[in-house]
Amino acid sequence: MNDLKPCPFCGERADFRFCGGVYLAECTVCYTSQGDDGGDGMDEIRKQTIANWNRRAEVGFDCGYAAALEDAAMICDVAARGWVVPSQSPFASVAASIRAMKESAP
Questions:
Q1: Does the pTM exceed 0.85?
Q2: What is the largest CA-CA distance in the chain?
């Protein structure tokens, strides 16, 4: 059963996945993720991941503006790595613009 709230950024459904020793709650559309690798056993890690994701979902974009901008910049960084010359990717300039917005955020 999926006890995750919708994504705090796009409102779509989130699912669980296990990647590199970390249990992730991840949006199925924008791929925003929240992970946890601590705890005693998989059940505890899953519960903590749900709690972390759902707390973030309650805060949402308006209250987590700087965090949302950094998440968006990181998504652009990942997309830029797919290019032969990452610095020439349009995603690289988008990431830089987003980080500039973050610096001027209230």
A1: no
A2: 44
